[in-house]
Write a structure and sequence with these properties.
The chain is of the alpha+beta class. Helix content is 41%, strand content 14%.
């Protein structure tokens, strides 16, 4: 199954799904929103079709779709709670939502993202779920870095990885196995629905599951620690999460004893992915990527485990 053939047939499915939902489809061009080995996503009018990663387990995806369908004020509900097969890939269908504008960082919905996470973390899952996939994705990024070939930035990233506790490297169960987590929170995981200016909702259930809720706060925490997120934006995010009763953190006090391990793990994961991409493209690291590697180099001592 070639990528081009998958993309073509996914486009046909998206168009058919959109036309089945309305007789007034403007029927413009179908747009490709993503085309990666782990996900191919296309949009036709207000319908989005996603082909998930080839190794996606059908029962796990089905339980994640069920969860999204039962939490419409937090997660974007799928158009159908059951994935369909397309040439060895599982395909799901979703309503289109307005994404965060990458050209307007001042309008980034940090408070909304934090509030949605707090509500998600406080919610009892409506169905049994697998573990949240955050640590597994970090381990996969490090494995790909090791396989990518030699690079001068690899050593400090692997040293930082070695200081993390086993659960953060997906080598043992997480210390929390009951809290509902998103698993891959960043601003690209929020959309407004209904379009164009409905409430913000979380999207992408591929990593949804049970685990350590601090992991969902870790990417903004890591960006802040690396100097890539403004202190005001970090404060907005942190304050909103606490105000919404998010269970990952106490209502006040120093958050870093809880956030330290996940933030380090996300820094390593992002640096590992950046180096692997740079090796594949035969290019130098850019300033942001180098800042991540520098942060890994500063992780000289083993962090406290998360209790």
């Amino acid at each position: 199954m070639t990528t081009s053939r998958l993309l073509t047939e996914l486009t046909i499915r998206a168009k058919a799904k959109a036309h089945a939902a309305t007789s007034a489809c403007p029927c413009g061009a179908t747009r490709t929103l993503a085309d990666r080995p782990d996900a191919t996503v296309v949009r036709h009018d207000h319908t989005v079709a996603k082909a998930h990663a080839p190794d996606t387990a059908a029962p796990d995806l089905a339980s994640r779709l069920t969860t999204a369908a039962h939490l419409p004020g937090i997660l974007l509900p799928p158009l159908s709670p059951t994935p369909v097969a397309l040439h060895g890939r599982l395909v799901t269908f979703w309503p289109y939502g307005t994404p965060v504008d990458p050209e307007n960082p001042n309008a980034a919905p940090w408070e909304d993202a934090a509030t949605l996470l707090a509500r998600l973390h406080r919610t009892q899952p409506p169905t049994p779920l697998p573990p949240m996939r955050g640590p597994a994705k970090a381990a996969l990024a490090v494995a790909r870095l090791r396989a990518a070939g030699p690079h001068s930035a690899t050593a400090p990233v692997l040293r930082a990885w070695s200081t993390l506790p086993a659960w953060a490297r997906a080598e043992s169960p997480m210390p929390d196995t009951a809290t509902l987590c998103h698993g891959d929170l960043h601003l690209g995981q929020l959309v407004r629905h209904p379009v164009p200016d409905g409430p913000w909702l979380l999207i992408d259930v591929d990593d949804l599951g049970l685990g350590v809720p601090a992991w969902d706060l870790a990417r903004p925490a890591a960006w802040f620690a690396c100097g890539l997120l403004a202190p005001d934006d970090w404060t907005r995010f942190l304050t909103a999460y606490r105000a919404a009763g998010g269970p990952a953190l106490a209502a006040d006090g120093d958050p870093w004893p809880v956030l330290d391990v996940p933030a380090r793990a996300l820094t390593v994961q992002t640096a590992a992915r950046s180096i692997a991409k740079a090796i594949a493209a035969d290019r130098a690291l850019d300033d942001v990527e180098q800042a991540l590697v520098d942060a890994c180099a500063r992780m000289g001592s083993a962090p406290p485990d998360l209790v």
